[in-house]
């Protein structure tokens, strides 16, 4: 009692300054504000490698999701492209972007989001909020894309707004319309 550890000295696997700050705030809430439930949730912390191009991820990898939920309960959407940022560059000078959504079926809940390419570091913060809130692919697709951006690809993956069952295609209503009477 009376000795606490946060940050790099812990075994959480997140040696990141913002994680240590968040853990310190939650510890202060417990110790000084009497909020015994205050804890940091380590399961969905966005991480970024500030390389060139940057790499970002939150949640489970595809293999982790398949191990946790089963092969038949995971779907993946991915894209690889050169962004419009490089439209005037020669083909061999265009930086590629790779995006991946790992979805838990049947609701297509986003349990993993991964990207490599320009601005991946900046995109992660906003998408981290959505993933932590339990967003689904339908939630993503209900967002109107901002064009021309790299992030718009996350909200316009194939089958945009449609649900295919066998030979039938039906409109997939955005979540905000499902509860209307």
- Based on DSSP secondary structure assignment, what is the total number of beta strands? 7
Mean pLDDT: 91
Major pleated sheet = 5 strands, antiparallel
Instruction: Report the oligomer.
Output: single chain
Secondary-structure-based class equals alpha+beta
Strand line-up of the largest beta sheet: 1-2-5-4-3
- Sum up the overall morphology in one term: globular
Helix content: 25-40%
Our estimate of the beta-strand percent is 15-25%
Rg (CA only): 19 Å
The poorly predicted ranges are none
N-to-C CA distance: 55 Å
Q: Helix and strand string, N-terminal first?
A: HEEHEEEHHEEH
Structure annotation, total helices: 5
Detailed description of the structure:
By secondary structure, the chain is an alpha+beta fold. It contains five helices and seven strands, in the order H-E-E-H-E-E-E-H-H-E-E-H. The strands form two sheets. The chain has a five-stranded antiparallel β-sheet with strand order 1-2-5-4-3. A hairpin with a 2-residue loop joins strand 6 and strand 7. The longest helix has 17 residues. The chain is globular, with a radius of gyration of 19 Å. The mean pLDDT is 91.
Please specify the SSE layout and strand pairing.
Blueprint lengths: L16 H17 L13 E3 L5 E5 L2 H8 L4 E9 L13 E9 L4 E8 L3 H13 L4 H6 L19 E4 L2 E4 L3 H4 L3
Task: Output the keywords.
7 strands, 181 residues, alpha+beta, 5 helices, globular
Short structural summary:
This protein is α+β, with helices and mostly antiparallel strands.
């Amino acid at each position: 009692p009376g000795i606490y550890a946060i940050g790099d000295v812990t075994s959480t696997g997140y040696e990141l300054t913002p994680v240590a700050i968040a853990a310190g705030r939650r510890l202060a809430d417990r110790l000084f504000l009497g909020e015994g439930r205050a804890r940091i949730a380590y399961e969905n912390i966005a991480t970024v490698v500030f390389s060139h191009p940057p790499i970002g991820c939150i949640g489970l990898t595809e293999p982790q999701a398949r191990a946790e939920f089963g092969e038949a309960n995971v779907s993946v959407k991915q894209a690889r492209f050169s962004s419009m940022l490089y439209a005037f560059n020669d083909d061999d000078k265009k930086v590629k972007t790779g995006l991946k959504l790992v979805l838990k079926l049947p609701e297509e809940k986003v349990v993993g989001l991964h990207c490599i390419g320009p601005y991946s570091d900046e995109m992660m913060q906003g998408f981290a909020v959505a993933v932590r809130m339990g967003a689904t692919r339908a939630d993503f697709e209900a967002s109107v894309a901002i064009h021309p951006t790299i992030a718009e690809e996350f909200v316009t993956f194939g089958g945009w707004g449609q649900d295919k069952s066998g030979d039938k295609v039906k409109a997939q209503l955005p979540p905000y319309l499902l509860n209307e009477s």
